[in-house]
Amino acid sequence: MNIGIFTDAFYPQVSGVVTSTLILKNELIRLGHNVTIITVAHPDVDEEEGIMRLPSIPFFLLPSQRVGMIYSRKIMIKIKKLDLDIIHTQTEFSIGIFGRIVAKKLDIPVVHTYHTMYEDYIHYVSRGIMLKPASQFAKKVSKLYCRDCSAIIVPTMKVKDALHEYGLTRHIDVIPTGVDIEPFERSNYDEDLIKDEKKSFGINETEPVVLFIGRLAKEKSVDVIINSMKELIVKIPNCKLLVVGDGPERENLEALVLELDIEKSVVFTGEKPWSKIGRYYQMGDVFVGASLTETQGLTFTEAMAAQIPVVAKYDKNLDDLIQDKTNGRIFYNDEDLAGILYEVLMDKEECATMVKNAYNAIEPLSSKCFGENVEKVYMEVERQNYMLQNQRVT
User: Fold this and answer.
1) What does the alpha-carbon distance between residue 377 and residue 96 come to, in Å, rounded to a whole number?
2) What does the pLDDT read at residue 122?
3) Contact 42, 56 (CB under 8 A)
4) Do residues 38 and 69 make contact, with C-beta atoms less than 8 angstroms apart?
């Protein structure tokens, strides 16, 4: 098949949508398909084969994100030459809208992946009394965008249930974004290299490391993890929190560290290139996440592939991923986090069992399975489209 993936979020930006799109592209190519990415232009990248970029500007509320043109005649001419069989949109905004326009003009079916629960992000664009109307608007836009697509894909049951609550009554395929497990395998990394990497951040090999990897944004609730360190270092004085990533909340988080007087126990690395992120997982003795806005939480799967124990705040999207005390730990109340981290770091035997169970169960979440499952959706859409065209002829 000739497949066009339309997305507002793509490299060099860093996000779960970007990761998912890159993995999907690579897996579809592995399966023998021709894939073209249609996305926003970015000042930090040049022209690349297989990628078309529409002119864009920084999003005024989040300058690190970019907003593209809704239509480009120049790109439309190029797309016509691709003879696309499927358009797969990954976002609902400018490039997603462009994808729908292209689909209508060229009579191509649209598959859409709904990645983001926008009602959890409206604090970026609304304040106070406007939060409820903004939330309702986000739900209506989501429903309208998804309603007329040929197929809808979501990463978890949490998102499927949300779309049904918004009033979407159609069939929805649940396909978790896969992880390319190989780059995270512990066997890929030399122990001395990891030790040296830790030393570069002032962490010696005897100091236990609590690890967070992700974007430093309000919805990630990194403050919950930092607050837990105040209690944890009372029990384990040499414990360190390693925060890998950057974002709009970094300054506030650094201020919180100073306020709690734990700056000797918390290390901010800043954003790191995706090609090297596997080694940072190897620096952790436990990986922790406290966000309640994830549609899937790819970093948990990556941590499982890296064979380090996972601790997560309960959210519905984790129901099929983490079973407490079996392949990870779950906390429900913020004040319980420090105690659970202490248990994981101290009980090496239980920790090893959880890590083994987690690693043995992640094959269904591999990038290979992800690509094959999306391909099945494409094939079903193609079959239905063929039948529809035949009905029109007769």
Assistant:
1) 19
2) 47
3) yes
4) no
> CB-based burial of residue 394 (10 Å sphere; 0-12 exposed, 13-18 middle, 19+ buried)?
exposed
| 86-89 β-sheet, strand order | 51-54, 34-40, 2-6, 86-89, 110-113, 151-154, 173-174
How many other C-beta atoms can be found within 10 angstroms of the C-beta atom of residue 250? 18
Those residues with Cβ within 8 angstroms of residue 91's Cβ, 6 or more apart along the chain or in another chain: 6, 7, 8, 9, 17, 115, 116
* pTM as predicted: 0.81
CA-to-CA separations, 213 to 125, 242, 246, 274, 385, in angstroms, rounded: 25, 8, 9, 11, 42
Distances 359 to 225, 253, 259, 282, 328 between C-alpha atoms, Å: 24, 32, 38, 14, 11
Using CA atoms, how far apart are residues 347 and 284, in angstroms rounded to an integer?
16
Per-residue pLDDT reduced to its tens digit, 175-233 = 998 888 888 999 999 999 999 999 999 999 999 999 999 999 999 999 999 999 999 99
Query: CA-to-CA distance for 199 and 205, rounded, in angstroms?
Result: 8
pLDDT tier at 322, thresholds 50, 70, 90: very high
Work out the angle at residue 54's Cα, subtended by the Cα atoms of residues 375 and 17, and round it to the nearest 5 degrees. 45
Length of the chain: 394
Q: How far apart are CA 17 and CA 9, in angstroms?
A: 6
Question: Burial letters for 272-286: b for 16+ Cβ neighbours within 10 Å, e otherwise?
Answer: eeeeebbbbbbbbbb
Strand partners, 174: 154
Determine the Cα–Cα distance for residues 175 and 153; give it in Å rounded to an integer. 6
Whether the Cβ atoms of residue 194 and residue 279 lie closer than 8 Å to each other: yes
Q: How far apart are CA 42 and CA 243, in angstroms?
A: 27
Q: pLDDT of 65-75, one tens digit each?
A: 678 889 999 99
- Residue from 378, 254, 329, 294 nearest 16 by CA: 294
